[in-house]
Amino acid sequence: MDQTPQPMRSLTFSRRAADMPRSSIRRIFNAAKELMARGETVIPLHIGDPDFDMPERIIEGVTRAMRAGETHYSPVPGIPQLRQAIAEYIAKRFGLPFTGETDPEADVLSMQRITCSQGATQALNGSLQLICDRGDSILLPMVHFPNYIQQTTLAGVRPILYPMDEQFQPVLDGLDELCDHSTRAILINSPSNPTGALFPPDTIRELYEFAIRHNLWIISDEAYVDYVYEGEYLSPLSVDWELPLDKRRVLAVFSFSKSFASTGMRMGWTVCPRGDIAAQLGLMTEPLTGSLTTPNQFGMLAALSEDDCHLRRESLNKRRLVAARILNENGFDVKPVAGGMFYFLDISATGLNGDEFADKLLAEEHVAVVPGSGFGLEPTYHDDGSILFSPNELAARCVRLCFGVPEDKLIEGVKRMARFIAKYTE
Amino acid sequence: MDQTPQPMRSLTFSRRAADMPRSSIRRIFNAAKELMARGETVIPLHIGDPDFDMPERIIEGVTRAMRAGETHYSPVPGIPQLRQAIAEYIAKRFGLPFTGETDPEADVLSMQRITCSQGATQALNGSLQLICDRGDSILLPMVHFPNYIQQTTLAGVRPILYPMDEQFQPVLDGLDELCDHSTRAILINSPSNPTGALFPPDTIRELYEFAIRHNLWIISDEAYVDYVYEGEYLSPLSVDWELPLDKRRVLAVFSFSKSFASTGMRMGWTVCPRGDIAAQLGLMTEPLTGSLTTPNQFGMLAALSEDDCHLRRESLNKRRLVAARILNENGFDVKPVAGGMFYFLDISATGLNGDEFADKLLAEEHVAVVPGSGFGLEPTYHDDGSILFSPNELAARCVRLCFGVPEDKLIEGVKRMARFIAKYTE
User: Fold this and answer.
1) What domains are there in chain A, each with its CATH number?
2) Rounded to the nearest 10 degrees, what angle do helices B56-67 and B294-303 cross at?
3) A195 and which of A279, A344, B362, B416 could share a cystine (Cβ 3.0–4.6 Å)?
4) Using one digit for the tens of pLDDT, what is the confidence trace for A118-135?
5) What is the predicted ipTM?
6) Which of residues 133-172 of B touch A (CB under 8 A)?
7) Alpha-carbon gap: A120 to the closest alpha carbon of chain B (Å)
8) Which one of A293, A294, A300, A402 would you mutate to disrupt binding with B, by most B Cβ within 10 Å of its Cβ?
9) Are A367 and A42 in contact (CB under 8 A)?
10) Alpha-carbon gap, residue A258 to A394, rounded angstroms
């Protein structure tokens, strides 16, 4: 023990806190808020939270639970009846075996493979910590949801971004060379936030083969599973179940938020390859957040009692096509996205980068979109141990537009944006 | 990049996940559950969740919010009206300045110093990550809430346990020698889970002086702030506000769970010394859990509209005295605890350690208590980088008993326990 007086240091934040990049949504969110505070009307195409009302059955489920005294701690991985209902729901969704059997040894989908979480966010963070130590690396998509980078920064895990082409599809050639002995996992997010791209079945299978080849876990962020509009959807989860139990490697993360219009209820879950993995992931929840909100779990149990996701999908599908049509009519060439609730538009023809574009569009047309820069953060490691993140070129020339707003606002917002693009492209 | 084929490794958990100690409550929890599944009645003195009903106004607040469409994402640090209400509540509670002013530059308690969280658990984890990097150390009480150790393990932070005497008061002599240049913070938990000890004002002031001397942050776990029955209570937060802004160092973590009988709603908050610290702590929440449950925040806003904590305190106070009286009447010498909802009883006179005691008590008397071993985890670092935790002697000879059960059950449980102690002590 060092008994000499310590030199005075200032009371500082940790390196990980200081290094953690800020969400790029926040800057435009605040700027839009300021405009609105000045009495201006802003068309909000920046937030990924559609205008859907939460289904009545969820409100009733939560209220009923509170009235029944379900306001105490619940088991950390979730209440058994919810975990079992999720297992049944996912089994049906993906054609996996479900018999009602809950013996952890039985190779059927059951509550023993399900760990609930505070939204998909906590599930992704828990999964990362479950499989990666500080100094390990994880393969992330080159264009990605910013939370991934924040999570790796806090956990001391090194993100390796795998390249994507102009259609935001992974470039499989050269992937093997990105791995080294520290690489523990690859993250797949299809359909993607922010790009809306859906990876074709062949790509999913090749990524899975790649994961086998390098002994990697696969974290599959399936938040937008219920928003696939065209193209064939194959989840890494389905591929996992084609293999014997001891070969499986997919931690599939789902979100009630998106599928059941309940973003503010903060409930998600992970489907794990084996019971022991689900149990360990559940244990990780103890120090991260403790048990989940008990009444909300009963709300989500009610959510699963009816499959009305197609209603929301149809509604968003219509808006997706409207947005593409208006852009195309105005000379901006864009194909409808295959999934999700976003367009990630290359606006470099305007001579602006995504940040400039978002700022000027907000100022000149009162339309809020998110600069792409925050969705493509590349780390640079400095000698002093700090990390600096800078946007890659692919993301920096794009902006993200959410089409989850009411149709009249969407039409007006996209029209203004098309006008803005035309003005700057001339 | 390493292009040679990688040797096959097995798909394993991270070291941090493997090293993280299991909650000691779980083993006895499962054993009790098994007994009950066999039709036996178990008196549950093991769970720290009193039998209080959640106040009606919280149920109404949550329901009203859902009906009003407050089911979408909310600001990550909490909705402004809740943060401001918490500021006012805490200011009143601790006699701190509150003017309604929300300018972050003004030195009054306001929403700018408050960050809400998913229970105290997430606040403690976020605070730890905010100020400690991997390799840093933090001083924790020798007898402690197990989550602390789980959190340091996941974060790669080294816990240094500060010694306590037989009354579970910190031994201040020699504290300076425990610190080295890696030490970033000291955690204070008074009243304590599991010990029920309240640190006297002089001790709090000496710990604060110690923190100044070594330039440490103070994390003050105030989960049991509303359960002080005797003795003078001084929060590190009060000491903090005696000093100028740039000297303050206390992150004070509070829990709606305990104060407002809403453990299953998972809401807590942190009072930060400055606005920039609260803002940074809020940012940490983004990747850890994302925004909080929106309706529950309105529920907690309703909770704060009425100060009925004294009702629950009076109820627990009565049970606290009942438990001590029965134990004393049966020849087991114990003083009523000063705070919290637990007795941490040295049962070594029985010739059993805490683990043996808890197992046998459950088997022979069907009374569940928690072995003390899990509340005193000392790390040993191995050459391969792994950490092994073993219980220190002080904790290992104790068991934790929660007196938050209905009085008739408490009386019966403590009587059986006293009988059991007498039998083994003879």
Assistant:
1) 15-53+309-425 (3.90.1150.10), 56-303 (3.40.640.10)
2) 140
3) A344
4) 999 999 999 999 999 999
5) 0.95
6) 133-134, 136, 147, 150-151, 153-154, 156
7) 8
8) A293
9) yes
10) 26
